[in-house]
Amino acid sequence: MSARRWRLAAAAAAAVVSTACGSCAGDGRIPVVIYSPHGRDQLTLLEHAFEAGRPDVDVRWLDMGSQEVLDRLRFERVNPQADVWFGGPTTIFDRGLRDSILAPYRPAWARRVDPRGVGPDDAYFPVYRTPAIIAFNSRLVPRSKAPHDWDDVLAPRWRDKVLIRDPVASGTMRAIWGLMILRGMRTPGDTAPGMRWLRRLDGQTRSYTLNPAILDQRLARGEGLVTLWDLPDILISRAKGMPFDYVFPRSGTVVIDDAIALVRGAPHPDAARAFIDYVGSAEAQLLAARKVYRLPARKGLSPDSVPDWVAEVERDMVVARVDWATLARETTGWMSYWDRHVRGSGATER
Amino acid sequence: MGVLLALVLAWLVVYPLLLVLVEGVRGGDGWTLEYVRAFLGRATEWRALWASIWISLATVALSALIGVPLAFLLARYDLPGARILGTLVALPAVLPPLVGVLAFLFLYGETGFVSLLVQRVLGLTDPPWRLQGAGAILLVHAYSMYVYFYLFTRAGLATLDASLVEAAASLGAGPRRMLWRVTLPLLRPALTGAALLTFMTSLASFSAPYIFGGGFRVMTTQIVATRLNGETELAMVETVSLTLVALLALALLRGSRADDSLAGGRKGAAPAAVPIRRPWLRVGLAAAGWGLAVVLLLPHLTLVLVSFVPLGTWTIEPIPPAYTLQNYVTLVRDPVRARPLLNSLWLATVATGAAVTVAVAAGILSVRRRVPAGRAIELLLALPWAVPGTVFAIALATAFSVHAPWAGRVILVGTLWILPLAYLVRDLPLTSRPILAGFRALDPALDEAASSLGAGRWRALRRVTLPLLRPALMAGASLAFVTAFGDFVTSIMLYTYDTRPVSLEILGSLRQSDVGVAAAYGVVLMVISAAVFAVGAERGTGG
After folding, report:
1. Which of A84, A113, A218, B327 could join B520 in a cystine, given CB atoms 3.0 to 4.6 angstroms apart?
2. Dihedrals φ, ψ of B40, to 5°?
3. Which pTM was predicted?
4. Which residues in chain A are contacts of B238 at CB distance < 8 A?
5. The complex's ipTM?
6. How many domains does chain B have?
7. What are the boundaries of each domain within chain A?
8. B493: nearest CB among A31, A71, A210
């Protein structure tokens, strides 16, 4: 390469770098950085709605799994980049609390939500409720033939037709696994019946999928017919045209409290608090319910204003009694046992 | 100078890993071997480790079987369209992570094109296979990693001295004897480099085993499962075990390469392409070559197809029922969504430039001047491949999250610079392997000739050494750029809002089941990567 070409290449590289860095600077608004697993649709929605009321704030979100939020916040403890942790089951917020990455903040709407989901010393507050459900491909399975309870999924006709989101990585799946073990317990600590149930489920399972997107694809393409998953994700996919439908298990389901918290050492705490206040407001709760199928944690919303699907869910959903303290304490051990001894062992047993 | 470079590399490569190792054996109160014992006592851990090892060995064998003959065929024989073919067969390297795997699902999954076709043709009621288990992993590995053997062998063949081949021929060596006694020994640095890269990449490979593994566990998937489950210390021990295997492989492969100086002089040009005289053979080979190219391109074509499919329309039909440009429009219209592309461009550019500079410096110091620290430098440069990307990300995040300048630690986490630094570390083996091999194949006499003719050090480097190294530089730089450009495993831990790269945007779209937009990003990523490779191949081999 000639000297001229070298110079040209160097100039091009410099141009790429400088244009990229030039736009790093903000536009004078206060940036609020949010780490959240809630996904583009919901985050864009709330970003625009919030910025409409606070033109001086620039909401910037990064979309990631709730386990990744925890990991990142741990690493960034010495140089926090995020202001708000928005989304994830309260059990994972508890781990964040132990790693002291949360700062207490009592939002304006604190008294409107069930105190069961509130973290110790106001560390986090529940924003949405996420029920687990049984979902199926509605184009290939008529609603009347779909399984209507957890045990129905073990029927011979669903053998090799069940798709499962990798349970170790997912808060929803961990909660379902926990429920299966808890409800099988006759004496405290007796996990054998639950594990036996999960082994039979493993025998029915066609495959464990890496992420919800692949789960959606395979379910839509009929590579499996039934899955256990959470309500908002199925409703969103259905609204986007996926052939999905769901049932609430008759014997009762687990409902996860989905929380929000202020990050310790947040660079812009005031704007962060304003955002947290907004997310739990009646306006934002209804917006999320209407547009992205989030079940409000806030109580006392006027019945006329909530969308129909919320009323339907409140009518049909049977909530199982769950010992959350045991769940929070034991899940890690259970999942580890399941991963090592149950996963992949059901096929040989049947 | 040599010591200085070795120290900088040690600070970048080894120091963060040591810090992680320390965390692995330190419990809440003091040192503990509890987790090491837990690891050693579990049969599942041993099984996963063994699976990692044999899968990697099989991947090396398969990749060599595809890549080396292909490189010979395209570099040595005058086939119709050999130039285009030569670029096409390198394309598996530009299939972006995540969406690439998705393309495999659309093709060979249970309701994929190929599976459906086979099912229809054979009149089967069930899908002919399941893309699952060790076989599926090996398929994906061989598909994506033979490129290392292919590129390295081509680079090696391009610097091969025709006069040696001719000398052997005039001494009466037949083609077979020539291959075993002349060509392959001369190619040994390139082949060892490729084997090492393939072994390490396969050992560190995560998406393929995770998505296609089913119940079959390798160590990387085991580590992630353990980490996700919150058993951080056990995961650290698992990581250390995997790293040890990799280091062992590194030591074995380096030990086997006793006399590098074999590739002594390069006086003449590379051997000219051999024309194939028999027409049927010519047609047959060309057809086989193009057939292979089509098979290799199927995942890319699938990705392009998917990028034109509107959301939620393609479910149980064999081919998409509707098409749209909307996915691309989305990507261009919204500045927030176009941004990651610019980010990835500048991050990869910076990292590649730095990695090439370091590799050239290492070549001069270790191969040319034979400084005492040379061996250490080369080892340090190869080391990052011995460590899974995730682990490096954790290590860098650990090392650079403390402000202690006296201990060589500053806070980089959360800043712009941690990501280019991570890419640089991951790129080091990619640039240094071919460039060091290139330096070895260079005749030091040329450099001496330049200086005896009055050229200064820089002038000799710029006018003699670098032009001669061009194939190696281009091979290294294009691999490094493409790797950094599409990187996923390191980025996911270290990116910030201002440096969010394309792969994370793809992940975000996938999380929303926006397969079309994810595929559109994937296509853009692929086109840019392919362009870089094409330029690299053009400038590197052509002229």
Report:
1. B327
2. -65, -25
3. 0.81
4. none
5. 0.76
6. 1
7. 27-129+257-306, 130-255+318-349
8. A71
